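Kindly inspect both lines:
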Amino acid sequence: EELAERSRQLQRNALAGKKRGQIIFLSFAALLIMIGVRDPMVSLGLVGGCFGLALLILDRNLVLFSETTVSPAQRKALRAATVFSAACLAAGILLCALIQAKVITLTEQQEGWLLMGIFSCVFLFCGALSPRLPFQRHTGLRLPWTVQDEETWYLAHKIIGLISLPVTLLYLGAGLTFSDLESIGQISVAAMVLYIAIPGFLSLIFFWKKYHPAGRS
């Protein structure tokens, strides 16, 4: 029975590695297309196709990629994250295509509002979903210490859930004080760094204390 279980685990790991390789290949293909294809519309279509296929592979193998037994609620959370990513990708490609084709035009202020709206939605969605994400290596705050320890993983994502609303409100308050796109872009980057740094730093402290307790020689 132990040998059979070991064999099943090896087969599972091999299949997971194959699927990861496909996702990585599609991601690099999208990057090469962005660099090499000069036609914006063609580039948008090909990049969208690569990322869309990568998301489809991820969605079909969510349970396979998980490190622990996934409950139905956690499976729904993983699927919701994948669907949200796909929706953002599709909306972004469509918007870029419409702007490139000059079907719609946005003023600098409207672009700033759109940017703040996108970031705010991402912050709030991730904050609501993060506490329900199971321990795995593909969806969530994937830092060297969070993917090594299940308890650290859940702590980091619980913190994300707690700070998402305050960070979003702080971000919107700071962003609305400026009208130029450059300043709003800088504030958006700062908010994203803060959003990741707070749970990342606190979970790192927890991980370090867990595996390097005081007084241990």
